[in-house]
Amino acid sequence: MPNGAQALMKTLVDAGVEVCFSNPGTSEMHFVAALDDEPKMRAVLALFEGVATGAADGYARMADKPAATLLHLGCGLGNGLANLHNARKGKVPIVNIVGDHATYHVPLDAQLQSDIETVARNVSPGFVRTSKATAELGRDTADAIAAARGYPGQVATLILPADVSWGDGGVAAPPPPLPAPKLASADTVQAIAKVLQSGRKVALLLGCRALREPALLASAKLAAKHGIKVLAEVFPTRLERGAGLPTVERIAYLAELAGVQLNGLDDLILVDAKPPVSFFAYPGKASELVPKTCNVHVLAKPDEDVAGSLQAVVDATGAGSTTPVLQPAGRPGRPRGRLTAEKVCKAVGHLLPERAIIVDEAITSGLMLPMMTAGAPRHDLITLTGGAIGQGLPNAIGAAIACPDRPVIALIGDGTAMYTIQALWTMAREHLNVTAIIFNNRSYSVLNVELERVGAERIGDKARSQLDLNGPNLEFARLAQGMGVHGTRADTAEDFVKAFEYALAHPGPHLIEAVVPESLSGAKRAILPHLLRALPKLPAPLARALKRKLAP
Amino acid sequence: MPNGAQALMKTLVDAGVEVCFSNPGTSEMHFVAALDDEPKMRAVLALFEGVATGAADGYARMADKPAATLLHLGCGLGNGLANLHNARKGKVPIVNIVGDHATYHVPLDAQLQSDIETVARNVSPGFVRTSKATAELGRDTADAIAAARGYPGQVATLILPADVSWGDGGVAAPPPPLPAPKLASADTVQAIAKVLQSGRKVALLLGCRALREPALLASAKLAAKHGIKVLAEVFPTRLERGAGLPTVERIAYLAELAGVQLNGLDDLILVDAKPPVSFFAYPGKASELVPKTCNVHVLAKPDEDVAGSLQAVVDATGAGSTTPVLQPAGRPGRPRGRLTAEKVCKAVGHLLPERAIIVDEAITSGLMLPMMTAGAPRHDLITLTGGAIGQGLPNAIGAAIACPDRPVIALIGDGTAMYTIQALWTMAREHLNVTAIIFNNRSYSVLNVELERVGAERIGDKARSQLDLNGPNLEFARLAQGMGVHGTRADTAEDFVKAFEYALAHPGPHLIEAVVPESLSGAKRAILPHLLRALPKLPAPLARALKRKLAP
């Protein structure tokens, strides 16, 4: 009869959970030993838990099924928390396995004792369970899998005491049924159809699962038929885009710009999305972005079949035969001269290979990326769903493991890259086809903007130094080399293009350090807050024109 | 009138909290701006929150007063959790400041929204407070300081909503009074004196504050007078040791060895310590290490004056004039030949400068460190109090900032170093006199031992690969260079000694990568579990002799 860990492992692989991103310790040794009993389980070691959890997140976004994690006690969970938060906000399924002390060891308050369930609840509000007995572990695992891959997807945390794991008498559980989400009700579909046909100013706001091809196509048909706008949430979990697909306009990160996008709308229809709010609060500004005069409707909630519900609306309004507007193919030219963040984005658009996966955590440096890649070959875009930086490099690991035949291009800010820089080692160890592009502008550029946006006016040297990554300069190519990743550094557009072409032509991983000036020069930065303040008051056409200059 | 952040800052510095280890985001921008209003506040930027919290821990251990942290929302707190856990277990005072969204932004569930209080409770069971109003922020800060530096020291978490921080009408609070811990009661002192005079086999077990010179001297007098043993907890918060100080025998990490240390004791007297338990649970083994026949007494709890209480016992038993046994000066010779972990420890003992601070997170590679440095010049030793690895490099930052005139030597395992490798950048930025020695044995060596100790017998390649850091090899000297730290690599004892001499003679920071074989060879590793199993059954003198071969 198998022990607990073996039953757990079999339950996982039988349900199709075939990758485990791990950072184990002593209490997880029986899980580790059980890896050898399950040829179908791939174990990917990370040097830091935030890498493991972020990789599980990226994997599930691309594989459309969960991976498992393996974390060591409450402290390991703490280290993995930020990227589990991002997964939670992106409604991404993860079977989050956290080892614990043996049940009889817990009351002794040994050095590593902490309250795991409490910490887990923060990222797993829907499913936290400590398995109490070896005989129940298989069933607990199946329940965790079912919870993770439900609608909406979630981080399901299974806490695994060492003695439950090593005990004899494990029983593998059969795979839980796949979820079958419901369509929006006929009444809802009719009501939404009426709004679309009203002739008012209407926008669809698509989130999460609504940003995949079937839902995008249905939305584009509705847009063409009824003259409505299609918006996407600011940070998509996974957005299918590029030549041949419908385009959507992402809500801007800067609340001032988002205000312009939503200005004048009569009706906003939510599809697996929430009413947009500003990322942060700012003194004297409202956090809600939807105009007070705009009616908010819900077509499909995250627990419903969003593509099917959109299709039902298409059928109800007779938009089925409408030709949607699709993005024509087109790439920007080859950039030249001194490297800037914009030229990096241009080079990515110029060279993006077929079926690429773009991981965008470039913060300010990536502002031009959406525009530069709009007409590039069809690709997937993964973004920072929960705002907890340090997601991009780990996400790239998971995406590359989920889709080994697709190139992964990760664009990452310098400050951001340092949160989970250990990811590079796992990329090298697993020979992943990832090209990581690090924008080295030597500052927390976004915070320089935010400092002024929050109205912290009198800014001295000590404050500035908190946002500044100069002294010492980070050398990312060297960091990559120290972890076994091929790393190069580019100061000119020509060098960058050469390095990127090399990376695309040779098996990865690669890291290209793009040395760029701060995305917003001092002068632009000084103007920006005033400009943003003025924006909502400007005549709409002027505001839109300015917005096009400023926004992604 | 100051705003909230300015009142907070003034309250901190007036109470002597003069260093802030920070990793801020948008919601903390007013705190950042307020730095320039307080010349007495030093702000030290970290690239990762675990570095900031670990630095605050190391600082407080050496400064004997708390620093502040500045973390960004719940995710930043999550990233800092592991080292806050270590601080909690070491009873180390930290004023842990976590920025939050503006109070009115919280209900909107924006991207970075999470439940901060819940996560904080794990490491701050004694003090978590969200400041509700600008006028109260000064008082809340004073309360947090008082809680942090109480007896025992603790991590006090103050959650700082952005609008409370930016609001007008802040009022700085006067410094809270310093704590005045009580002595053990006269009855307790008399009872302990009687135990010491009983002629039975008695040991003192010293923890936390009892490992500083006054308590050590009092204990050594009692040892000399009454023929008792003096033990120290396995992972001291801060241990004063070296030539001229009394020695204490640390409880071994391996439960089997600890069992031998405690074997045959009639009475164990706790001084700011708990009854020792094994670090982890092992199948079929008891977790409690104190023999069932041993009486456990408490002289002083963590909320009492431990040195004063020990002195009261000295007075009660007339040991005041007894001459304590002190460690004679003495250093090991210069190591030669192929480098091993033991030779690194030998070189450290051979060269340790006066008044050094040793941070020991070398796990298996540091086994010989205590022996090799026992007679070195007087120094402080900081260890992994909570078992959450990734503490050493951040602790070294804090220790160096607390004691700028003392050299800090941090001995770190390779696996461990990678958890908070970003610490190197802060060391370079702040020009800290730290020499980080990384034992590069290319494995999680301790886990190879643990895998067998937990009885996970059939170990295959996949399991082994989870404990193995080969492929790609980490190159720590290069990683150091990539973050602006002078890094060298040593394969021979001669090279290591040369690099260490250079590091001691030149301003830091330095990193020396010591390339060493796994601390326990395959053969030794295979024997170890059997040996450990046999140990408690062997005749005491033989077990002790073996223990001396195996233990620190």
Report on the architecture of this protein:
Two copies of one chain form a homodimer. By secondary structure, chain A is an alpha/beta fold. Chain A has three domains: 4-166, Rossmann fold (3-Layer(aba) Sandwich); 186-317, Rossmann fold, CATH 3.40.50.1220; 341-520, Rossmann fold (3-Layer(aba) Sandwich). Chain A is 39% helix and 16% strand. The first copy, chain A, has helices spanning 4-14, 29-34, 49-63, 73-89, 116-121, 134-148, 162-166, 186-196, 213-226, 255-262, 306-317, 341-351, 369-373, 392-402, 414-417, 423-429, 445-453, 461-465, 476-482, 493-505, 522-534, 540-550; strands at 19-22, 42-45, 68-72, 94-100, 128-130, 155-161, 202-206, 229-232, 239-241, 249-250, 267-271, 295-300, 357-361, 379-383, 408-413, 434-440, 486-490, 510-515. In chain A, the strands form three sheets. A seven-stranded mixed beta sheet of chain A has the order 9-14-13-15-16-18-17, sandwiched between helices. A six-stranded parallel beta sheet of chain A has the order 2-1-3-4-6-5, sandwiched between helices. Chain A has a five-stranded parallel beta sheet with strand order 10-8-7-11-12. In chain A, helix 20 links the parallel strand 17 and strand 18 (510-515). Chain A is globular and about 70 Å long. The first copy, chain A, starts with a helix and ends with a helix. The mean pLDDT of chain A is 93. The interface between A and B is large, with 101 and 101 residues. Chains A, B: Keywords: Thiamine pyrophosphate. Chains A, B: Pfam families: TPP_enzyme_C (PF02775), TPP_enzyme_N (PF02776). Chains A, B: It comes from Ahniella affigens.
